[in-house]
Amino acid sequence: MKLLPMPYMILCAVGLLFAAAVLPASALTSDTLAVTVVNESGDAEVDFAFTLTWYERVAVWLNLMDPADTMKEALSAYSDKEVDVLSVTDAGTSMRVYGFARVEEQENATLYRTPQMRFADSEAVAAQYWFGPLLDIDTTPARTTVTFPDGYNETFADAQVIPPIEHQVV
């Protein structure tokens, strides 16, 4: 079998990349979201697991997009809270969101109030980035768990909106 001359191979490679770029994208799919309120300041550790398509993995690998910076910028702008990105892989990210829950000291107890989480808002924020129009982003996690310092938790399946949660720790 005879190989094509180099210019034709480059043209074919560019054509394949173009075809891959215009294929409908299933994009980022949210698998799980775990929010753990970790202290009496209302800070939370947030672990978000997701699935990327092969071309999104390539974009991350080539540094065309930086999920850590994108996530931090979006969360900070949307929530008005300080966010530290602790780790990022091609399958998830871990963050600390300062002051995520409102905390009220009561007699013999601490009351925690988490905010409502609307995942459609996340999709609108993601659509504002340069790669947003190329993707069909599903930010509604298959499972969301909110855990409080005493271990109490509430779990939601495929919920587009997580209601505010109040929990009292004695």
Spell out the key features of this protein:
alpha+beta, 28% helix, six-stranded mixed β-sheet, disordered N terminus, 35% strand, three-stranded antiparallel β-sheet, 170 residues, 11 strands
Structural class: alpha+beta
Helix content: 25-40%
Content of β-strand: 35-45%
The coarse overall form would be: elongated
Biggest pleated-sheet summary:
6 strands, mixed
Count, helices: 4
* Strands ordered across the widest β-sheet: 3-4-2-1-8-9
Low-confidence stretches: 3-9, 15-20, 22-26
Strands, count:
11
| C-alpha end-to-end distance | 76 Å
Question: What's the overall average pLDDT, rounded?
Answer: 77
What letter string, H or E per element, gives the SSE order? HEEHHEEEEEHEEEE
Provide the gyration radius in Å.
Answer: 20 Å
Number of discrete domains: 1
Oligomer designation: single chain
